Amino acid sequence: MLVAVVGALEKEVRPVVEAMATAKASKWGRRTLHQGRIGDSELVVVACGVGKVKAAACAQYLIDRFSIEALFCIGVAGAVNPGLQTGDIVISEKTGQHDFDLGDPRLLKKLRRRWLKADGGLVKLAMEAARESDLAHRCRLGAVLTGDQAIVTEEKRESLWATWHGDCVDMESAAVAEVCRMNGVPWVIVRAISDSAGDDSVAEFGRNLKQAASSAGQVVLLALRVIDGRSKSSLRP
Predict the structure, then answer these.
(1) Where are the alpha helices (DSSP H) in 100-233?
(2) What domains lie within the chain, and their CATH numbers?
(3) Does the pTM of the predicted model rise above 0.90?
C-alpha cells in the first residue's frame, strides 16, 4: 500500500522520515520527497511548505505522480478549544477553511455546515494507534480549522471558537483534505498542540515545535504499522 505523509515543515515530517527503512530522497522543484517503507507500507513523505496553496499543490502532485492510496496530514497546530493544552493531540473528524468568506452572512452560515469529513477507516486506525501509545490520554477526536493566517491573538482565537467551535487551527490541513476529496483519496489529520493560538503563541510555537511534532509523528508511525497488509477498501468504515 502506498501512503503519503504531508506536513508543512521538515521538523514536522522528520519523525516519520527517520523511521523509514531504505529511505531515499529526490526533488520536486524546491521540495524534497522522501521515499521508503514502514513495515509493508510504501511511503512518500514531504514538507509542503506553509499555507493552503503550497499544501494543495503538493497533495495534487503526490496523487498524480505516485497514485497514493491514503494520506496523513501531520504536524502541529494552535489550540482553539480552550480545553486543549500544549501537547494534546487532535485526530480529525472533520476540517474546514475558516478564512473562506463570500461576504454574505447567510452564505457563511451555510459554509460552516460544509465541513470536510475525514475517512472513517483512517480515523479509527489513528485512534486505535493512539490508544496503544503512551499518549493515549492526550489524544482526542476533533475539528481542525485551516486558514492562510497565523492565529496569534486572544481576540482572533476567541472569534474562531465562537464562530466555528473548531478544536485547533493550522494553515494546510483543509486544503489537503479538499484535494483528497476531489480525487477520492482517503485522508486523516493528526495535529499536536504547540501553542495557545493567543498573544504568546509565537514564543510557544518556537519552544514546543520539536516535541509536538514528535508526538504527532509517534501516533502516525503506530498507525502506519497497523495499516500493514490492509487494502484501500478495508480502510473505509
Answers:
(1) 105-111, 120-131, 154-164, 173-183, 201-226
(2) 2-235 (3.40.50.1580)
(3) yes
